[in-house]
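Below is the record:
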Amino acid sequence: QDGKRFVEGFRPVPVVGDPGAARVFFAVGGARGILHEYLRNREPREGTALFFTGRTPADDPKVIESIKAFSRSFERVIYCRMDATKSGEAVAALRRAREEFGGIDCLIDASGAEMSRLFASKSRLDIQAEIDSKFLARANVDRALAELGLSPARKILFNSIVASYGNQGQTVYAFTNAFLSGAKGASHLFWPPLDGVGMTSEPMLLSKLKLSGMELLDRSEIGRHIEACMGAHPESGGEYHVLSMRTHFHSRVMDVAISDPALVAESFGRFRTNRKATFVKTLDKEKDAFLKDHLVNGSCVAPGSAGLASFALAGLLHLGCFPEIVSFNMQNF
């Protein structure tokens, strides 16, 4: 706004209720990263159960190790192999959880598989698989919950805290997570990157974040902030999206820009009506403040991935659907 950047600050959820009220947890993912860190360090409580899923075979040593670690926090732990991008497997896993425990109190979704390769080196199938690992997985779980009549009182959905700060190979993953963050009726929690957990366990990325002077969230704080969601008032139906402070703009765009054509044209491009959909975007280093973060020899340079992402969003906002990107070409001017 007016050439200035405004970002969300870290605002923890205040605990007003009993975090221990949730007894049955269903976790999508948990083999590594933030969810694994929470599940293995959660304070033990009587009568709690965990049903966690993943694509790794049940006899894999890492899964066996996770079951042992999680059993210190939960009285009962069950692992079920599930590829959430396949609707039948999502239904089967949730049906089994219902048979074992009668219902689910809290669903935690940390699904997703990012491929840290440069965008230009990814095939169309690679890109689709990366999108599906997040978007399709979540859609399948939601449909399965509805089909089986399961209504968790809390849903905590991780939409990647780090991808928008990550390496050049995380464009697709970061964009997909930002897209999911635009869900209506959810409470958005903007977290800073974690210190040495998940993607930041990569030394180069962690070093980059620390050199930027960014304040990171210590791993010892993870449990406290997730537990706060359990004990908070059930705002927005009890659904919380945990995402990067950098991607807060997306929910605002989805809420505001759709009803403001002028803002859409300024932010994502003007739509030219002809046989082929063409979007025109004139960059302005005063209005497009992100350009000031991308300097080469003192000159502002627009990253090519930003143009492709803007095209996709423009298609969504103007045409009401997410455009299928069959091929693309990047050219210097």
